[in-house]
């Protein structure tokens, strides 16, 4: 066995565990097992289930299911369609942010009406950030409205050079009131793969020129963190005539980032910041005492979906050769994952906050 590298566990503020309503794709149990196998001990689940989670009642149901099923700690974001009658106050204390889909995505819960968008930013008068799926020109609208109402803004899955430049300018004006994330697949997979169904996602993969700017933005702090946008679909769906967008990522993030570290694209200290320190700070997540992961270095292996814990057993990094493997995960003093085996019980993770 090679050198053992001990790291803080990973935090992923952007996952889609599909519960309730689409458990055949993924569920809290399989998704959290996938998280532990990747060294992730805290996730925040997105609201675009079959029914968009916009109320305290729907949120409480997800929290209940999470408490019964999750192996890792799990929190939630609230969704909105911009309806004036939506009561943000009843749910605000139980979520880490409000998500707005400003471009088309899974579920079709898009808010494009300028009046509704203005109303959302005006009425979300809470310390948690507004998270936006905002590609290209819609990002300009989100940045403008966040500045107008002095709201914290978090930009999800940045994929284009122009978006990095917009975020940089917004940070110059508003500092830590603006944050952003990038996915491993946008950093490491180019639009060359776009025709492959297992690389179909929203936002789509970028050109090489965009990828370099993404790396620059991640390293200079314009982009604060790496988040997977873990969005599973079954193999049958992916290989159908109308394959849905979305890929998995929880189990492959650290191995591919460590390969990038070996190639000089990012330092180990920056990996620690973007996978743990920054998401904890941006979303106000609790630190987990006596929690860490152990990674074996210099132990070559190939990524194959069939070997992963995620329910559909798929990955955009199929066949990629990596040199580092998560060997052991300790959560609050208990070894919960070791050598490919999940050692914890469903429901052992905490529901946050």
Characterization of this structure:
With 353 residues, this protein is an alpha/beta fold. The protein has one domain (4-342): Metal-dependent hydrolases (TIM Barrel). The protein is built from eleven helices and 14 strands. Strands 5-6-7-8-9-10 form a six-stranded parallel beta sheet. Strand 6 (98-101), helix 4 (114-123) and strand 7 (130-133) form a beta-alpha-beta unit. Helix 4 (114-123) runs parallel beside helix 5 and helix 6 (161-174) runs parallel beside helix 8. The N and C termini lie far apart (38 Å).
Architecture blueprint of SSEs:
Elements: E1 4-7, E2 10-15, H1 28-37, E3 40-45, H2 56-69, E4 73-76, E5 78-79, H3 89-92, E6 98-101, H4 114-123, E7 130-133, H5 137-149, E8 153-155, H6 161-174, E9 178-182, H7 184-188, H8 208-220, E10 225-226, H9 235-238, H10 253-262, H11 268-283, E11 292-302, E12 321-331, E13 334-338, E14 341-342
Parallel strand pairs: 2-3, 3-4, 5-6, 6-7, 7-8, 8-9, 9-10
Antiparallel strand pairs: 1-11, 11-12, 12-13, 13-14
């Amino acid at each position: 066995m090679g050198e053992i590298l001990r790291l803080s566990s990973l935090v992923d503020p952007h996952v889609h565990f599909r519960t309730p309503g689409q458990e055949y794709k993924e569920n809290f149990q399989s998704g959290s097992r996938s998280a532990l196998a990747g060294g992730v001990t805290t996730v925040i689940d997105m609201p675009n289930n079959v029914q968009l989670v916009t109320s305290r009642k729907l949120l409480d149901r997800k929290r209940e299911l999470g408490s019964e099923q999750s192996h890792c700690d799990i929190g939630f974001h609230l969704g909105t369609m911009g309806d004036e009658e939506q009561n943000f106050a009843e749910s605000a204390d139980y979520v880490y942010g409000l998500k707005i889909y400003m471009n088309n995505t899974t579920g079709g819960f898009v808010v494009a009406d300028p009046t509704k968008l203005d109303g959302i930013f005006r009425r979300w008068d809470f310390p948690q950030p507004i998270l936006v799926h905002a590609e290209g020109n819609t990002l300009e609208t989100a940045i403008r409205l966040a500045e107008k109402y002095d709201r914290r803004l978090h930009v999800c899955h940045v994929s284009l050079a122009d978006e990095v430049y917009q975020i940089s300018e917004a940070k110059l004006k508003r500092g830590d009131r603006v944050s952003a994330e990038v996915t491993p697949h946008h950093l490491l997979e180019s639009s060359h793969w776009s025709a492959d169904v297992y690389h179909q996602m929203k936002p789509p993969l970028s050109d090489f020129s965009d990828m370099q700017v993404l790396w620059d933005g991640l390293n200079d702090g314009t982009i604060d963190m790496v988040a997977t946008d873990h969005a599973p679909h079954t193999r049958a769906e992916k290989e159908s005539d109308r394959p849905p967008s979305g890929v998995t990522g929880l189990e492959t993030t650290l191995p591919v980032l460590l390969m990038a570290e070996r190639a000089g694209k990012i330092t180990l200290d920056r990996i620690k910041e973007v996978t743990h320190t920054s998401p904890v700070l941006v979303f106000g997540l609790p630190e987990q005492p006596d929690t860490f992961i152990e990674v074996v270095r210099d132990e070559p292996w190939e990524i194959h979906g069939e070997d992963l814990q995620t329910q559909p057993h798929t990955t955009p990094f199929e066949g990629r050769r990596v040199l580092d493997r998560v060997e052991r995960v300790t959560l609050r003093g208990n070894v919960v994952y070791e050598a490919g085996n999940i050692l914890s019980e469903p429901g052992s993770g905490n529901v946050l906050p």
